[in-house]
Give the backbone structure.
Amino acid sequence: MPQHAPEGYNCTFCQIVAGSTEPATQPSDVVYRDSHVTAFISLRWWERNPGHVIVIPNTHYENIFDLPMQAAAHIHNAAQKIAIALKAEYACDGISTRQHNEPGGNQDVWHYHLHVFPRYFNDNLYGAPFRNTTLDERTPYAAKLRRFLSNIKG
C-alpha cells in the first residue's frame, strides 16, 4: 500500500509510545499501556465530549491497510476497556469509536489510531467545534481513567 507520511516524518505517536515528551501530549496523559498498545487522553476536545481517548499500537503502522490482524485485536481489546472506563467514570450515555485512513479519509497523524469518545444524548459530536486543551484540563480525566483501568484485569 502507498505510504502518505512525508519523507523524514517524525511520528508524534511513536514519541508518546517511547515515553518522551512531545510538544503537547505528556506522559501524564497516558491512561493505559501494555506491551502492545498505548492509550492517552486526546489533546483535541469536542465541545460536549471532553476527555476522549486515543488508542495506538506500540509498533508503527501507518493505517488500517498496514495493520496486522493481531495488532487490531489488541487495539480493540484496549478500546473495550477504555469504553468501560468511560461509562463508569464519565457517566456518559454511550460510546463512539472513530478511525481515519489516508488523506481522503482525513487521517492527520501517520500512525494508526482509534478514537474512543464518550457520548451524550444530543451532543452533536460530529457537528460540534473542537479545540486543543491544556495539560491542566486533561489531568483530572486521565487520573480518573488510570485509576479505573488499573483495576481491570485481562
About this structure: The mean pLDDT is 93. Strands lie at 30-33, 37-41, 44-46, 53-57, 94-98, 114-119, 130-132. The two ends are 33 Å apart (CA to CA). The longest helix spans residues 69-90.
